[in-house]
């Protein structure tokens, strides 16, 4: 399924990419979109669904002029998501776990988003009533920092934010190349 340019849309995830005039990634059931530029002309987008709150993956090979639905990356109530290209080329996909034992999960791709590792748990906070909204960055020396929303979690920052300097190296060692 390819989603073409549709100007003038409201409350839909849109993107202005080089050569595109606000191309529509997906319609109706999607919001809270994160976008990652891979290389010349290639993009990934992850969008939260409104119906069951999972994250769906979309890809563009034409600089955002059209988008292909690549399927779900999470299960029910695992949202929203963040994409980060790591220094070694892997793509880190983090997502909120917002039902049951709440926290933050992660998956990795070593082939530009064509396939993904099994989900892994980075943060678990069983006493939380809300959480999610992860955002990651990689420091110059390679450490990956993760900031996320989490209420009622030991060590949480004010306003319900939890922070973690994630030791991702162990997870990366387990990732099949």
List keywords for this structure.
single chain, 177 residues, mainly beta, four-stranded antiparallel β-sheet, 1 helix, 14 strands
Q: Care to give the gist of this entry?
A:
By secondary structure, this protein is mainly β. It has one helix spanning 169-174, and strands spanning 2-3, 14-15, 23-24, 30-39, 42-49, 55-60, 67-72, 78-85, 91-97, 103-109, 120-124, 131-138, 144-150, 161-166. It is 3% helix and 47% strand.
Oligomer: single chain
In the sheet with the most strands, the strands line up as 1-7-6-5-4
End-to-end separation in angstroms reads 29 Å
Shape, per Cα inertia axes? globular
Radius of gyration: 16 Å
* Largest beta-sheet details: 5 strands, antiparallel
State the share of residues found in helices, binned by percent.
under 10%
Number of helices: 1
Mean pLDDT: 77
Q: How many beta-strand segments?
A: 14
Strand content: over 45%
String of helices and strands? EEEEEEEEEEEEEEH
Helix/strand/pairing category: mainly beta
User: Stretches where pLDDT falls below 50 for ≥5 residues?
Assistant: 1-20
């Amino acid at each position: 399924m390819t989603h073409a340019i549709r100007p003038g849309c409201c409350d839909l995830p849109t993107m202005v990419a080089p050569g595109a005039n606000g191309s529509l990634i997906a319609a109706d059931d999607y919001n809270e979109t994160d976008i990652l530029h891979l290389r010349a002309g290639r993009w990934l987008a992850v969008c939260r669904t409104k119906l069951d709150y999972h994250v769906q993956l979309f890809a563009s090979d034409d600089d955002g002029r059209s988008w292909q639905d690549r399927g779900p990356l999470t299960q029910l109530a695992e949202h929203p998501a963040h994409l980060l290209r790591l220094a070694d080329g892997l793509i880190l996909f983090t997502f909120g776990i917002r039902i049951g034992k709440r926290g933050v999960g992660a998956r990795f791709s070593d082939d530009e988003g064509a396939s993904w590792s099994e989900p892994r748990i980075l943060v678990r906070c069983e006493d939380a009533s809300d959480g999610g909204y992860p955002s990651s960055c990689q420091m110059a020396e390679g450490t990956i920092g993760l900031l996320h929303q989490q209420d009622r979690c030991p060590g949480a920052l004010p306003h319900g934010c939890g922070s973690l300097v994630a030791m991702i190296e162990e997870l990366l060692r387990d990732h099949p190349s």
